[in-house]
Every structure is written in structure tokens, then in C-alpha cells.
Request: fold
Amino acid sequence: MIGFLLLFLLVASCGDVFVEKELLERPQAKRCSDCHSDIYKEWEKSRHALAWKSEKFRLESENYTKTKCLSCHAPHQADPEVKPTLRVEFKEDGVSCVACHFKENTKAMHGPHKVWSPPHPSKQDFNYARSFFCAGCHQETYKEWHLTKAQKSCQDCHMPSLGEKRFVQKFPFEYFHTKKPRHDHSFPTGKAKPEDLAIEVERGETLRLKVINVGIPHNLPTADQGDPKLYIIISALLPTGESSRIVKVLSYQAKNALVYKEPTYIELPWAEVKALEVLIQRKLSWKEEREDIVKKEFSFKTTVHAPFSRSSCPYGRGPSSHKVF
Ligand code: HEC
Ligand code: HEC
Ligand code: HEC
Ligand code: HEC
Ligand code: HEC
Reply:
């Protein structure tokens, strides 16, 4: 076996026998799976792989006729500084391997490592491990993230480490290469944890709820073109024993998303409450159903009053005169 491999290496070093030229002619993503089959299987499940085929995208781009919509959903080449141009071939691959890794100027696959890759030239490029790499398409989210000065990159959360693994699952190449750091190409969206949201009830001029995104270093929800939403459902138990409920919807499109570490206040319409229950749910752009993020209950030993009622407020600005979204 060893002898065979050594012979193989010797032959390989004598020429371009391993070069597969059409890999540099922008093939379909499926072609990359001949060797990178694990990465392909992850990518196939990702939103990037569905960016063109997405039914919602098809409808909203008016059956692919709105040309300004198309370039990020089937990009030719991902460069951080510029919005991509539309790819000519295999648009159904969406945000594909070639779009993210192949560069026209070097005719090589760019990636985070220095590798020896006989079938195609490769070039090391440190941008791949940086948030900046995602900026060309996720423009708004990148700007939000940049302002937070967060240490963690987009990749830390949306391409989490899978430990050291082989990049290639094809004989005999797999034996020529050591295991190296791998990252999840299913690009998981993830979900905020209960502790990512700080929720308090405050008695300012009125009773109000304070919500802070303390855990996600971009707006929650964040978007460039999608319309993910956060639902804040507040139920109150009133002193009369009756219950009452209000729902506030937050989104990027409505420009009221939770900015990282900045408090958002929600004025409550009740002058007195015995207990409050706050349920926060999210709905991703491409999902129909909502999912719970956190549920928090507040009960008050004594009934909580808003500090000013209409009769006691010297300026006549009781809580009932406040606009409640
Ligand atoms: C015939 C096998 C083969 C095919 C097909 C193939 N590659 Fe590779 N690729 C390799 C090998 C071998 C390496 C080096 C692996 C290592 O060092 O562990 C590599 C490495 C890479 C790297 C890593 C570069 C870095 O610097 O981190 C990228 C990116 C890459 N390939 C992209 C692609 C893309 C995109 C396609 C499809 C267009 C593709 N490859 C098709 C064999 C292949
Ligand atoms: C060439 C453009 C492009 C680049 C570069 C790009 N993305 Fe995307 N990304 C998209 C598009 C388009 C979608 C939406 C796909 C869909 O659902 O239709 C998307 C969706 C996503 C989603 C899913 C969001 C959701 O709604 O659930 C995540 C997570 C994501 N990208 C992370 C990243 C990260 C991290 C990087 C950088 C490593 C990156 N993307 C680079 C275009 C890009
Ligand atoms: C600058 C790049 C860019 C352009 C141009 C763009 N999108 Fe997107 N689109 C994205 C990214 C990135 C996402 C991932 C979620 C997010 O950040 O909104 C996305 C997500 C979406 C989604 C939600 C995911 C899904 O598949 O359901 C829809 C729908 C969508 N885009 C439609 C459009 C439409 C319609 C246009 C044209 C008006 C457009 N996009 C133009 C980058 C772009
Ligand atoms: C949205 C852009 C994007 C797409 C699509 C994409 N990659 Fe990557 N890929 C990256 C980034 C960014 C990294 C570096 C991650 C890091 O180091 O944090 C990477 C890393 C790699 C690596 C090095 C090993 C690793 O897991 O870190 C290989 C090999 C690779 N990609 C191949 C592929 C292949 C093959 C496909 C298609 C099946 C593909 N990539 C699709 C952005 C992309
Ligand atoms: C500390 C981890 C972390 C970092 C860093 C991070 N994100 Fe996120 N991101 C998340 C989590 C968690 C969610 C899911 C929020 C939820 O529950 O809906 C998310 C959601 C998203 C979504 C889907 C829309 C939404 O609001 O649900 C996109 C698109 C996205 N992130 C892109 C990016 C990009 C691009 C970067 C880098 C500029 C980045 N993220 C940095 C954790 C992170």
C-alpha cells in the first residue's frame, strides 16, 4: 500500500496528471462533491444552496424578471467589497461552491488554508476566516455587526468548527492529506438563547417593558432582503382578575429590530397589573411557523401601579394618553 502511494506521488510530481482542467471552468456544485463529498452534503442543505430555488424568492423576484434581485441569489463571484454580478451558468445552484471559492484573476480555488491540491490550483486567502468575506451580500448585517465591535465572526456562529477532518473523501487523494480544521457548510442560522435577551419591567413615567439583545452581535432580527420577525407577546393579569394581551412585531423592514445592547422600550397599556407573562418568538424569512425563544413571568406581591394615573398626574399625561404602538 505504502509503496503504491509513493509511486503515485512520484508520478504526480512529474507532471499535471492529477489536474482536472474543467474544475476551473466553473462546473456545477455537484462536480465538487466528487472529492469534497462531506462539504457538499452540508452545503446542499444550506439556505445558500436554495437561494435561487426558494419559492418565496421566485415569487418576490416576479419569476426571476426583477433583474436587481438576481445577483446575490446566483452570484458569479463573491468579493467582499462589491455586490456580486449575476452568474450565467447553473443559476439553480444559488450561492455555490464556485461563487464563493473560485477567483477569475488567479484561476484557482481560494480558501483559508495553504494546501497542496493536485486536481486544481488553490490559493490561501485569510479573508475566508473573517466576517468581511460575507459583506458583499450580507451588507446590512455586516454593517450592524461591525458597529458592535464583536470579537466573534459570522463564521464562528454560522460556520461553526467541526474539528479536524479530511477535506476530501476520494481515493486515493484522501490519504495524501492530513486532517485540518473544517467548518460547517450548512451555514446554520441558529436560534437566540433565552439568555441572549434581557427582559425587565420598568416603572418609568408609565409601566413599560425593557428588552435588550445582549447576545447576538447584529440586529435581531437582521436582514438584507428577507423579512424575519420577532413577536413579543405580553399577557397581563389585571387586578380585576381579567387578562389582557398585546403583541408587538419587530422586523428589519419595519425598522424596529432589537439593536445589539440598546434597550427597546414597549409601553404597556395597563395602569395596574398583578402579573405579566412575556413570550418572545421568532419567525425566519423562509419558514411559516414561529418558534419560541424565551418565556418570562413576572408576578408582583402588591399590584404594580403606573406611577401616574390620569387623575394624579399634574400635567394631565396619564398613561392612557400615551400612544401604545
Ligand atoms: C478530484 C478531486 C477534487 C475535486 C473534484 C475538487 N477538489 Fe478541491 N481540493 C482537492 C484536494 C485534494 C484539496 C486539498 C485538500 C487538503 O489539503 O486537505 C482541495 C482543496 C480545496 C479547497 C481548500 C483551499 C484552501 O486554501 O483552504 C477549496 C476551497 C476547494 N478545494 C474547492 C473546490 C471546489 C469549489 C471544487 C469544485 C469546483 C473542488 N474543490 C473540486 C481535490 C478536489
Ligand atoms: C454571494 C452572496 C453571499 C455571500 C458571500 C454570503 N451569503 Fe449568506 N446568504 C446569501 C443569500 C442570497 C441568502 C438567502 C438564501 C435564501 O434563503 O433564499 C443567504 C442566507 C444566509 C443565511 C441564512 C439566513 C436565514 O434567513 O436563515 C446565513 C446564516 C448566511 N447566509 C450566512 C453567511 C455567512 C456566515 C457568510 C460568510 C461566510 C455568507 N452567508 C456569505 C448570500 C450570500
Ligand atoms: C445585496 C445582495 C442581495 C440582493 C440584491 C437581493 N437579495 Fe434577497 N437576500 C440576500 C441575503 C443576504 C438574504 C439572507 C437573509 C437576509 O439577510 O435578508 C436574502 C434573503 C431573501 C429572501 C428570504 C429568503 C427566502 O428565500 O425566502 C427573499 C424572499 C429575498 N431575499 C428576495 C429578494 C428580492 C425580491 C430581491 C430584489 C428586490 C432580493 N432578494 C435582492 C441578499 C440579496
Ligand atoms: C457562502 C460562501 C461559501 C460557499 C457557498 C461554500 N464555501 Fe467553502 N468556505 C467558505 C468559507 C468562508 C470558508 C472558511 C471558513 C473558516 O475558515 O472559518 C470555507 C472553507 C472551505 C474549505 C476548507 C475547509 C473548511 O471546512 O473550512 C473547503 C475545502 C471548502 N470551503 C470547499 C467548499 C465546497 C466544495 C463548497 C460547495 C459544496 C463550498 N466550499 C461552498 C465559504 C463558502
Ligand atoms: C455570536 C454569534 C453570531 C454572530 C457573530 C453572528 N450571528 Fe447571525 N445570528 C446568530 C443567531 C443566534 C441568529 C438567530 C437569531 C434568531 O433566533 O432568529 C442569527 C441570525 C442571522 C441571520 C438570519 C436572520 C435572523 O435575524 O434570524 C442572518 C442572515 C445572519 N445571522 C447573518 C450573520 C452575518 C452575516 C454575521 C456577520 C456579519 C453574523 N450573522 C454574525 C448569531 C450570530
In short: The pocket of heme C (ligand 5) is lined by residues 131, 134, 138, 141-142, 145, 150, 152-154, 156-158, 189-192, 216-218, 220-223, 228, 282, 284, 293 (CB under 6 Å). The two ends are 73 Å apart (CA to CA).
